[in-house]
Amino acid sequence: MPPSESATHRMETLLAQLGNRQDPQTGAVSMPIYHSTTFSHPETGHSTGFDYTRTANPTRSVLESAIATLEGGVRGFAFASGMAAVTCVLTLFKSGDHLVVSDDLYGGTYRLLEQVLSFTGLSTTYVDMSDLAAVEAAIRPNTQALFIETPTNPTMKITDIAGCVGIANRHHIMTIVDNTFMTPYYQKPIGLGADLVVHSATKFLGGHNDVLAGLVVASDETVAARIGQLQNGIGAVLGPQDCWLLMRGMKTLGLRMERCTENAKVLAKWLQRQSIVTRVFYPTLDNHPGRFVHEKQSTGGGGMVSFELSDARFVKPVLDGIKLITFAESLGGVESLMTYPATQTHADMPKDVREAVGVSDRLLRFSVGIEHIDDLMADLAQAFDHAQGEMAAQ
Length: 394
Fold this sequence. Notes:
7-stranded mixed sheet; alpha/beta; globular; 12 strands; 5-stranded mixed sheet
């Protein structure tokens, strides 16, 4: 997107116009898909700016420019998955370096840190980052970065991004924020001082459960240049077809986020009234301990709700009982999904670690879609009735 657009247009307009008239030769409204892996040089010593598609591709370049504009950064980067994006960012660090990381974070990131990067000599301390004093206390002389999820996945803990940036700046270290749950529609970490933002774009940005993708945005040119080197060197770039699918999904991000958030707010309050439910995790609930901080740095609660059942024996009949909502991993699509983190997204976390950070055997994670609220509520109600009936029959 041209800089002039970002200066004058609001988020919804930028999203709807994503890719429009970005191909000057044709004026295409939908950015064409450039499947070519290599590009002709006009003459010796000159390039069109596109030589080999791992390094740059016209379709990918439009997507990368768009996410940089939306997040308020200087440059964006598109990867073959969210984990490829996280891996590239963590490749900034070397053996002997130390990271301070949100303790309740996506299980895939935990797996990468513990089962892959720990063998390279990178060490990690996991901290409840809703406690800024604990963040400060965890920093060592060799600490190089804070890696933050807010809200966390799946217990929706909230981290004060600006507060962490202040700590990081005092210690001359980086701040990296996973913004998957909120997207730039609701939260802009770079505007709060973060150095890097990462996304599993498979989720809310793509929004249709049909494309695997990751995005990174850098706040300054020095960091951007290094990420660009790593992206090209590692080579896990997003293909042009998937770039186009992601852009198509992002065009409706504003509409989808508004609808799923509206649904999630209603369902979170409804869940609080159910006898089978003992605790509900949603950032804008009155009793959420991080509500004030979240509302200070974000403009919406998002579409993710987690809740604990009163008994672990309810989990199976609830998941067996849902009919409209799909029992499946992932999140952020137009279709509502329910996940059991203990055996799915966080299965690679040792049980004692999971339970210490709140991922209990009674916890369900609910990615609320854009279906009619009455239908979603009715599906949950009949699934809860089914579970309670089965328990009573035992």
